[in-house]
Structure formats: C-alpha cells, structure tokens
Design brief:
There is one protein chain. This protein is of the alpha+beta class and about 150 residues long. Helix content is about 40%, strand content about 20%. It has one domain: Nucleoside diphosphate kinase-like domain (Alpha-Beta Plaits), CATH 3.30.70. It contains eight helices and four strands. The protein has a four-stranded antiparallel β-sheet with strand order 2-3-1-4, sandwiched between helices. The longest helix is centred in the last third of the chain and has 11 residues.
Length: about 150
C-alpha cells in the first residue's frame, strides 16, 4: 500500500544548486512526487513544523535557519516511503550518516543538513497540512513503476 511523506529541502540546498540532485535520487528510488513547490517559509509555519522541539536550546536557531531563504517543499508517495526516505537521507548529523546517504553526501554540519523528512506517518500528515491543501496533492501511477517496482 502506498503512503505519503513530507520532505523539504533546506535553504542551503537551494542556494548550493542541489535541488535536482536530491529530487533525482528520490525519483530513481521509484517514489512519486505528489506535490512540490518553492516556498519562503514563514516563522509561524516553521514554529508549527518544529513544535515538538519548542523549549529546546536549538529551537530558535532551527526556526531562523529554515526561514532564512527559499526551501523546496514536497510530498512524496510510495511503498514504506517514510522509513525508506529516512534511510536515504541518513542521520541528522552528517558526520554520523552512513556513506551514500543524502546527508553524508551533501551536508557538513548538523544544523545545515540539507533536508528534512517526516519521522512517522502521523508527522507526515501533520507536516503536509501545514504547507499543502488537499487538492494540491496529486496521486498518479507511472506505468514503469507499476510494472517493475510495485508489483
């Protein structure tokens, strides 16, 4: 069964011209992009996104960071997508991320770790609602994925 997850590429990813590289990795894995947009995150949105960290020492810093420039917001669809995307992106600290993961390949420090991905289906649903209306999400099938990847 297909599920959805929420991902966003952080400001450093946009500024370094890595959008295509990362989107390509997601698509090559066989996942479908159900929604995507370039967005300048507002402080209120960032605070809602990271509400579970409110009161922690790094909260203000992460809010300031993700609102510092444009980001790319995406909803990605696929089989076991939450867990598989989390494996693809690697540990929050790129120095601890497995070789070949997105963070190991493109990030240098934990604060500027290039990508965010939901950690559960519940988080994915909540995070998606912050940035996308339900009518902005498009489900579709690619004939090749249906035949070769999802059967």
């Amino acid at each position: 069964m297909l599920e959805r997850t929420f991902i966003f590429l952080k400001p450093e990813t946009v500024m370094r011209g890595l959008i295509g590289e990362i989107v390509s990795r997601i698509e090559k894995k066989g996942f479908l992009i159900s929604a995507a947009k370039l967005h300048k995150m507002e402080k209120k949105e960032a605070e809602e996104l990271y509400m579970m960290h409110k009161g922690k020492a790094f909260f203000d810093s992460i809010v300031d960071h993700v609102t510092s420039g444009p980001v790319v917001l995406m909803v990605v669809e696929g089989v076991d997508v939450v867990n598989q995307i989390r494996k693809m992106i690697g540990a929050t600290d790129p120095g601890k991320a497995e070789p070949g993961t997105i963070r190991a390949d493109y990030a240098q420090i934990a604060k500027d770790n290039v990508i965010h991905a939901s950690d559960s289906q519940e988080s994915a649903n909540r995070e998606t609602r912050i940035f996308f209306l339900s009518q902005e999400l498009i489900s579709y099938e690619k004939p090749t994925e249906k035949k070769y990847l999802l059967s």
